[in-house]
From TrEMBL:
Keywords: Isomerase. Its EC number is 5.1.3.15. This is glucose-6-phosphate 1-epimerase. CDD domains: D-hex-6-P-epi_like. It catalyses: alpha-D-glucose 6-phosphate = beta-D-glucose 6-phosphate. Belongs to the glucose-6-phosphate 1-epimerase family. InterPro entries: Aldose_1/G6P_1-epimerase, G6P_1-epimerase, Gal_mutarotase_sf_dom, GH-type_carb-bd. It comes from Actinidia chinensis var. chinensis (Chinese soft-hair kiwi). The keyword Isomerase applies. PANTHER family: APOSPORY-ASSOCIATED PROTEIN C-RELATED, GLUCOSE-6-PHOSPHATE 1-EPIMERASE. One of its GO terms (molecular function) is glucose-6-phosphate 1-epimerase activity. Substrate binds at residues 72, 90, 95. GO terms for biological process: carbohydrate metabolic process. GO terms for cellular component: cytoplasm.
Length: 314
């Protein structure tokens, strides 16, 4: 792997460095000074900052990589399962593998390339992985940072096996919020969800926008492709756009569970909220040679735009 620094545009660049655990990471920057960090451990985005240097993703203060335990924070990639339904480690092995950089990625679409920095990572199963999950696949993850600061993750998973396989998937996104009690989610009201706190029993969301006053661990089913997470105190809204990802996990461990998890600092659960794009209820099945694409796009806008309904299409 070369230490290449590729200049895509005026100041937009990618750089290879080490993260705080000494693991290789790629830093993407845009001309305005926004940045994103992607660790080769797990292909996990561990940081996303706006042009004022403000961190937009949550990372637990005690977050260290202790494989096979993944780091809690950023955007862990859950593949080939979300949760622990089949006899694999919780949320699958992808988040605990060392990915490689694809040195010859397909070029960005011409209209899409202005000021954008991106990196393509690859994951292929090792002999050891095949013992636990006997399916050959090629997983290409493109992480890009737009000139406008937008963070996009595109996963392409190809079956290079001679028989079909199925998987579930999640971009388990940890958003950084001011205080969980100040946050609400729009876009999930009236949907059905599986409640992990009640053995995945199915319920229907009754209320208006979703707010938080205790532990939440749910998979909202067939959710819209645009979801907004409004943070009143910070007066900013995360807009999550997704494609190929029908479900949305909403998770906050709250105080007791967060303490038991050990790698959250005191009260730190208040500053995080996982809201993701995922494919969980109905596993994706790929026949030999088939490819699946799942795309997640994150932007942050001032909250007032959202409450006026200007940016969230129905
Ligand atoms: O604890 P992990 O494996 O990092 O996963 C984070 C959490 O992800 C949630 O979505 C699960 O439902 C929780 O039970 C889990 O703790």
């Amino acid at each position: 792997m070369g230490h290449a620094v590729a200049i895509w545009d005026h100041k937009a660049a990618i750089e290879l460095t080490k993260d705080w655990n000494g693991i290789d990471q790629v830093v993407l920057r845009n001309p305005q000074g926004a940045s994103a960090r992607v660790s080769l451990h797990g292909g996990q985005v561990t940081s996303w900052r706006n042009d004022r240097g403000e961190e937009l993703l949550f990372t637990s203060s005690k977050a260290i990589f202790k494989p096979p335990k993944a780091m809690r924070g950023g955007i862990p990639i859950c593949f080939p399962q979300f949760g622990n339904c089949v006899s694999l480690e919780q949320h699958g092995f992808a988040r605990n593998k060392v990915w490689t950089i694809d040195e010859n990625p397909p070029p960005l679409h011409h209209n899409d390339s202005h000021g954008k920095s991106f990196v393509d990572l690859l994951l292929k199963p090792s002999e050891e992985d095949l013992k636990f999950w006997p399916h050959s696949f090629e997983f290409c993850l493109r992480v890009s940072l737009g000139a406008d600061g937008k963070l996009t993750l595109i996963s392409r998973i190809r079956n290079i096996n001679s028989k079909p396989f199925s998987f579930s998937f999640a971009y388990h996104t940890y958003l950084s919020v001011s205080d969980i009690s100040e946050v609400r989610i729009e876009g999930l009201e009236t949907l059905d969800y599986l409640d992990n706190l009640f053995k995945r029993e199915r319920f229907t969301e009754q209320g208006d926008a979703i707010t938080f006053e205790s532990e939440v661990d749910r998979v909202y089913l067939s959710s819209p492709n645009v979801i907004a997470v409004l943070d009143h105190e910070r007066k900013r809204t995360y807009v999550i756009r997704k494609e190929g990802l029908p479900d949305t996990v909403v998770w906050n461990p709250w105080e007791k569970k967060s303490r038991a998890m050990l790698d959250f600092g005191d009260e730190e659960y208040k500053q995080m909220l996982c809201v993701d794009g995922s494919a969980i209820e109905k596993p994706i099945t790929l026949k030999p040679g088939e490819e699946w694409t799942g795309r997640l796009e994150l932007t942050v806008v001032p909250s007032s735009f959202c409450s006026e309904g200007l940016i969230i299409p129905s």
